[in-house]
Design brief:
By secondary structure, the chain is mainly beta. It has a single domain, classed as Porin (Beta Barrel). The chain is 10% helix and 52% strand. It has three helices and 17 strands. It has a 17-stranded antiparallel β-sheet that branches. Strand 7 and strand 8 form a beta hairpin. It is globular, with a radius of gyration of 21 Å. 32% of the residues are buried.
């Protein structure tokens, strides 16, 4: 195991060296503007995770000057194409206005996304059905500062999704529809969600906090016939705490809860799912999904050398049905990773390896920004 970790560390150092060598003009321009805290980077974006395999693309971000590191306006985005023929485009403006009295979060996302369907529930079903989603998402969240740390606001979001299947779907169609329902398969669905959000944010940085608390609760709903094909109520609770240990050592933990409720069938794509690069690293995103999901994850973050940091993490959680709050086998994942700071806003390039308690292979993640 020691030899393996040494190999991983060597490969990561090589990646960082190549990155800084190729993009030294960009890094230099960032360093020159640290006093005003403005930064811009546009870089090739190689990434890896189980859901996408390797991807290539472009990622970038512009970070506005700010007198407060915890309230930095930014516009970030990426466009990626993966070895699984997935195309993903994403842009996220986060803008603070009027001396931080207003905060406007928005997101535009488009995906042409070949994927696998594994059924619904927290048990393995034996199903692995291919499908392709074409997804368009847009979200707008204006928020007003009630106090320095407390924001209240509204959410307006729209989504359109269609699914394409091949001939292999015919052999499992009846089983899927009988056991898990036809929601999300037979025709495109669309929704306009509206609701409220409340947040508390005392972190000293949005991107890599050394201390503070972040908490956010959202409640939204869509109504069939009023710009939506389904009536669904969505609830989420996100609580994060960052505890300074000594120096720049940080113990961070997160509790996350998400649920989707409806009197009728919910398209499977709108059900909460765990796994992937942020929520329970080590599990494949989409393998387990249901209308309720809850998890807890802990991460210890360690300074290594200048821009380089390390982390070890442990996560546990599961999905379940609100009709039967039962967990067959709690899902647990653990791992470690390395970070390379890209700018003064503490945005990091992130490399993680993770393992789970279901006997799956080691999972690798190469991406930007922290999991939480």
């Amino acid at each position: 195991m020691t030899d393996f970790l040494s190999y991983i560390l060597m490969r990561f150092k090589t990646l960082v060296f190549v990155f800084l060598t190729i993009f030294s003009p960009i890094v230099a321009s960032i360093s020159d503007s640290v006093a005003s805290r403005r930064s811009l980077f546009i870089i090739p974006h190689p990434a890896y995770q189980q859901e996408t395999s390797w991807s290539v693309g472009v990622a970038g971000g512009y970070y506005f000057k700010s007198k407060n590191l915890s309230r930095i306006s930014s516009i970030s985005g990426s466009a990626d194409y993966t070895l699984l023929n997935q195309f993903i485009f994403n842009i996220t403006p986060k803008i603070y206005l009027n001396n931080n009295k207003w905060y406007l979060y928005s997101n535009l996302n488009f995906r042409n996304y070949p994927d696998f369907y594994y059924g619904i529930g927290n048990k393995t079903t034996g199903i692995k059905q291919t499908f392709t989603s074409n997804i368009f998402n847009v979200s707008l969240q204006p928020q007003y500062a009630l106090t320095k740390e407390i924001y209240a606001g509204a959410i307006v979001a729209g989504r359109y999704e269609s699914v394409l299947t091949d001939e292999s779907f015919n052999s499992v169609r009846d089983r899927i529809f009988n056991e898990f329902g036809a929601g999300g398969w037979e025709k495109p669905f669309y929704s306009i969600n509206a609701g409220l959000l409340f947040s508390y944010d005392s972190r000293d940085s949005q991107f890599y906090p050394y201390k503070g608390v972040f908490a956010k609760t959202t409640l939204t709903g869509s109504k069939a016939g009023l710009g939506s094909s389904h009536s669904i109520t969505d609830l989420s609770v996100d609580f994060r705490n960052y505890l300074p240990v000594y120096g720049q050592h940080v113990l961070a933990w997160q509790f996350y809860y998400e649920a989707a409720f409806s009197k009728n069938e919910i398209p499977f794509q709108l059900l909460p799912t765990l796994g992937g690069r942020d929520l329970l690293r080590g599990f494949r995103q989409g393998m387990y999904r249901d209308n309720v999901m809850a998890l807890l994850q802990i991460e210890y973050r360690i300074p290594v050398y200048k821009r380089i940091k390390a982390a070890v993490f442990l996560s546990a959680g599961d999905v379940m049905s609100s009709k039967n709050y039962h967990i067959d086998k709690l899902k647990v994942a653990y791992g470690a990773g390395l970070r390379c700071r890209l700018n003064d806003a503490r945005v990091h390039l992130r490399f993680d390896i993770a393992k789970n308690n279901y006997g799956d292979k080691l999972q690798f993640y190469i991406t930007a920004t922290e999991a939480f």
